[in-house]
Amino acid sequence: MKEASKFGKVAHNLGLSAWFGGTLFGQVALNPTVSSISDKSERGRVLNEAWARFQAVNMPAALSTLLGWRLGGVREDAELRVPGLTRAKDVLLGGAAFNTLASAVLGATVASRASEGFVPVRSGTTPAPETPPSAARALRLLRFFSNGSVALLAASVIVSGLIEAASPKPRGLLSRLLD
Fold first, then answer.
1. Whether pLDDT at 170 is above 60
2. CB 18 within 8 A of CB 74
3. What is the distance between the alpha carbons of residues 35 and 40, in angstroms, rounded to a whole number?
4. Measured at the alpha carbon of residue 146, what is the angle toward residues 159 and 118, in degrees to the nearest 5?
5. I need a surface site. Which of 57, 87, 88, 161 has the fewest CB within 10 A?
6. What span, in angstroms and rounded, lies between the C-alpha atoms of 24 and 94?
7. Contacts of 165 by beta carbon, 8 Å cutoff, 6+ apart
8. Closest Cα to residue 136, out of 158, 113, 105?
């Protein structure tokens, strides 16, 4: 493996793990848990702040994943061994990138629909009865795209594992790093 491929693989794997792990955490832990906050507007504030902070990690992680895959030599290495899986991973990562970008735009849209971004919600992507109609529509779309991101990223991780399993048996970590 060339130096660029090693760096590309590290960037890709680190990015994919942060992108998937953070998105999964938000969907299964953060979004449902805010329903325990009694004030519905406070739920919106907590969600907006948490997701805004995560975007500072999520967007670079997505970019690292995609650049490592496409420009870091990782895709070319995979294409030599398992072309069908490589093309599947292209589609999955493209879909995940689209859904992640749509989710970020929709999240910003929801935040812009109330003063100071504190849109009342029942839980992470479930509107409260008093949620403004345009924000409620954006929340429903956000649920669709963010769940899609989790599913596409999970499938990307699975395909990545299958690609790695098709790779030649690696030598020890230290010997590979010293090459």
1. no
2. no
3. 8
4. 155
5. 161
6. 18
7. none
8. 113
Which backbone phi and psi does 123 adopt, to 5 degrees? -150, -170
Question: In the chain, which residue ranges form alpha helices assigned H by DSSP?
Answer: 3-25, 31-33, 40-70, 74-81, 83-111, 133-165, 173-178
The pLDDT of residue 50 is above 60: yes
Integer Cα distance of 124 and 26 in angstroms: 9
- Sign of the alpha-carbon dihedral angle for 126, 127, 133, 139: negative
Q: How many other C-beta atoms can be found within 10 angstroms of the C-beta atom of residue 114?
A: 18
Cβ distance 30 to 98 under 8 Å?
no
pLDDT grade, residue 158 (50/70/90)? Answer: very high
Q: Measured on CA atoms in the order 75, 90, 102, 144, is the torsion positive or negative?
A: negative
DSSP type of residue 27: I
User: How many Cα atoms are found within 13 Å in the side-chain-facing hemisphere of 109?
Assistant: 18
Pick 2 or 138 by higher pLDDT.
138
First to last CA, the chain: 9
Instruction: Supply the pLDDT for residue 72.
Output: 87
- Residue 57 contacts residue 15 (beta carbons within 8 Å): no
CA distance 137 to 12: 34
Average pLDDT over residues 80-98: 94
